[in-house]
Hints:
Blueprint: E1 2-4, E2 7-9, E3 36-40, H1 45-56, E4 60-65, H2 68-80, E5 84-89, H3 95-109, E6 114-117, H4 132-161, E7 163-168, H5 180-199, E8 205-212, E9 215-216, H6 225-234, E10 244-245, H7 246-257, E11 268-271
Parallel strand pairs: 3-4, 3-6, 4-5, 6-7, 7-8, 8-11, 9-10
Antiparallel strand pairs: 1-2
Helix pairs in contact: 1-7, 3-4, 4-5
Amino acid sequence: MLAGAWGAINVTMPDSTPSPPRYRSIFRPDLFAEQVALVTGGGTGIGRCIAHELASLGATVVVAGRRQEPLDATVAEIIAAGGRAEGVTLNIREEDEVDRVVAELVLRHGRLDHLVNNAGGQFASPAAIIKPKGWRAVIDTNLNGTWFVTQACFKHGFAKRGGAVVSIVADMWNGFPGMAHTGAARAAVVNLTMTLAVEWAAAGVRVNAVAPGFILSSGLKNYPPSVAKLARELFVSNPAARPGTEAEVSAAVAFLLSPAAAFVTGETIRVDGAASLFKAPMLPMSRHKKLPPWDGFHLHPDLPEIFADLAPAPEE
């Protein structure tokens, strides 16, 4: 306080404490103010990034996952950045547990506005040697778990007041050689997305999906060195000539959850730098003669000499 001719003057000195770093979203800060979002698999990787962005836009974010430690770390990060978040351990493959956790979430917060199905897992393997246990584990997580959480959120929250669902799938548009289990599961989720968009529209529920391509994410640590080396080479083999970022996936999710996507439902947005349209194969193609040609035409085409060795041999 300073004294002068005008009497006592209150002077507020500027606060020199640096502001905590915050997520730099492209969207306005209060986009999801007063809303509640559930993000499965929200403790690590892309899910962690999505949780941070939604919190930066005003949402109260509930991050769910099987391991407590990464959930605690992500919640602490969001709170330190000025957001609101809480964590809950959840095995999405257990339908009774899912139903209980979602019911308690809605009861505690009084609402549920958004669901991001991000939890998932897979491993690289030729289809011929995937064991039944491994197949079931991936299908149970990536397909059944996604369904259990989505259905519980509809039952306990969305059926009464609407909501928005975004499921994270994968680039499996040309099949998924090397990961047949997750290709099958993710394709099923895309179909489920279209189905639910129709069935639940009258309840005010929009259902969409995001299919990331090669993304620089902590999830890459889960792959063995041989797979990581192949991925490193493939990461730049797309029209964008680079991998994507977690934030680019998160921005697509935020858009689909927002009112800007009010007329978008049943869709899957590809965030892949056009890799799904033009990309190098994940597995090398071998030369073989196991699929012989059939040529019933008795008048063979007149081919340039350079193609002669590819023509079927004439029948004797």
